[in-house]
Amino acid sequence: MQEHKRRQLAIIHKYGVTNLHRQNPYIVAWWSAAFPGFGHYMLNQYFRATLFTLTEVIINTLAHVNEAIVYTYCGKFELAKSVLEPRWALGYIIIYLYTIWNSYHSTLVQNKLVHLGELEDERLDTMVFTTSGIQYLELKSPVIAAIYSFFFPGLGIVYNHRFLLGFYGILWWLIYLTLSGAHESLAMLITGNVEESIAILNPHWLLFMPSVMWGATYHGVITAKQQNRLFRLEQRQFLRERYGASDVRIFD
Amino acid sequence: MLIFGAFEYSLELEEALGELERSGIKRKDILAIPMDTYLGSSKDSINEAHDFYSKAFEVGAACATGCSVIGTSIGFILNWGPIIWGLIAAAIGLVVGWGLYFLFHRKAHRSFPKRIPEVIIVVKCSKEQSDLVMEIMGQYDVLTMGRHIESSS
User: Fold this and answer.
1) Given CB atoms, is A52 within the 8 Å cutoff of chain B?
2) Contacts for A174 with CB less than 8 Å, ≥ 6 apart
3) pLDDT in tens, chain A (252 residues)
4) According to CATH, what is the number of the domain B2-35+117-148?
5) Which residue in B29, B51, B57 is closest to A248 by CB distance?
6) What is the torsion angle, in degrees rounded to the nearest 10, for the CA atoms of residue B69, residue B74, residue B80 and residue B86?
7) pTM for the complete prediction?
């Protein structure tokens, strides 16, 4: 019978790695503010994070929050006021603040769980075979993850083996690209057609993109680093088990 | 005879150990010592709270996101448009965030070389085996290695 593990630091499963790690609660809270749900991705709470991101996109769209932000920064306060939909905006604020508070609070709890997990030092797995594929710990380059996630959010996450989240990101980036016109606009910019390149952009969908781009880049970097750390921890456990009873004596 | 090899944590390290055992070195004749740095167990740090570059990037990425949203918004009424201004603002945010973190934490920072010895492997073997042991280590990305020939007394 498999031994019961009480406080593990990580598991490997068919969709990648799910792990606990130490984080700065303010940074996690900030990602929740940048895009509700992102803080929960940093906390490895994938399902609720995904539901939060869907909630964000739906209510933001209904309340016209992004348009209001664009008008406000452009100094057109009257337009901002008129575009915002009060029916949805108040609910939006409450959920928005909840995700910030909740991710901040959960980080404090998870940091304690990491401490306990490190003290218990349960044996980590290094490889899992399932019918849908192989998953394993390996050393990852944070820089490569960052570059892929920056140019196409989601790819860096797939690179880190968390492919379900990665493809969810890719799907949304495709939706944003289509609805915002960002890549067409970029092509026009490169060919020197500046005015038309601005006219083609849809502010509502464009304004989701900076947060997604940077959130994905940050996620790529930290998950690569965490997985490297898990790889090292597991290898230390392995070396201790296999060579702990060594007969080698350097001084007799 | 004792052979010392310094490795990074890597799959190659395990390949080297496996090959050593297959070539006839007994498991009891191998000693593996994971090394610690002042940060903890390696440069990517067991204790992430002390990982300087991660923290600088954390602050940088957070500032980049915020600036990028503002830059994109204002870009709608500026000459070059939201995409360019979004990217420029992001770059400024990244540099400013990173720079501020660096300024405030410069003193706590000690840089590491890119590759550091993270595990020391010691192998006890006969004189005849020693070349083979070093050859295997060399094949699997050893950083540095050396041998100690015991004076026959």
Assistant:
1) no
2) none
3) 566 788 999 999 999 999 999 888 999 999 999 999 999 999 999 999 999 999 999 999 999 999 999 999 999 999 999 999 989 988 899 999 999 999 999 999 999 999 899 888 899 999 999 998 999 999 999 999 999 999 999 999 999 999 999 999 999 999 999 999 999 999 999 998 888 999 999 999 999 999 999 999 999 999 999 999 899 999 999 999 999 988 888 886
4) 3.30.70.260
5) B29
6) -10
7) 0.90
